[in-house]
Amino acid sequence: MKIKSSIVLVTGATGGIGDALVDELLRRGASKIYAGGRNETALSAIAARAPEIIVPLVLDVTDEVQVAAAARKALDVNLLINNAGYCGLTGALSKDAVVEARREMDVNYFGVLRMAHAFAPALAANGGGAIVNIVSFLALATLPLMGTYCASKSAELALSRSLRAELAAGKTAVLASLPVQVDTPMAAWTDQPKVSPRDVAAETLAALEAEAIEVFPGRLSREAAASFAADPKSVEAFLASILPVAT
């Protein structure tokens, strides 16, 4: 999968990682970028960077009508990047855990599933292509502070692996990107070092071109992945010490 001359749809394009993905796609020579998101004003601002290439697309991945409309409009897509995400910052026993967990699953898991169902036919019709899912290192190791989010990301990772197997015959690759905390509002809860959105975008797209199936973008992500591979129980024990405030 080469980014140059590709036709791409990015969900959550107005967020930190989504914004960086659009910039990186432009830098790598994508011929058309559908920038999907819920905020029309923010989408218009993104499209203004390169109006001949960027097509703003109002798209809430939890809305089946909008997903279907996007699939009808973007029939020429050969690269789908599922970047839209939501985190309620809730532990499993937090007061609002059930409400937040449903929202997280709807965006992070069912949203990806809806998009895959909607765009797999177009990808196949266009000769194959790729789906990139921006997942999280927390799909592998649970952080109780964000326990319900971790569950949704674990589900998204499992879905990514299933889609990879099912879509292989149609020449559509599936890449899962698993960064640790990224310097976006979602990670404002911690003052620990973070991966830049630019690094996530650049290294994820580089991994796609290198035909990887999973990538840990950014030095911090690679270090976390190496630690987890060497001693998963120690990583899990450390994360388990970061508990939510009782509510």
Note down, in words, how this protein is organized.
This protein has 247 residues and is an alpha/beta fold. It has a single domain, classed as NAD(P)-binding Rossmann-like Domain (Rossmann fold, 3-Layer(aba) Sandwich), CATH 3.40.50.720. 46% of the residues lie in helices and 13% in strands. It is built from 8 helices and 7 strands, in the order βαβαβαβαβαβαβαα. The protein has a 7-stranded parallel sheet with strand order 3-2-1-4-5-6-7, with helices on both faces. Helix 2 links the parallel strand 2 and strand 3. Helix 7 crosses helix 8. The longest helix has 29 residues.
What key attributes describe this structure?
single chain; 247 residues; alpha/beta; Rossmann fold; 7-stranded parallel β-sheet; 7 strands
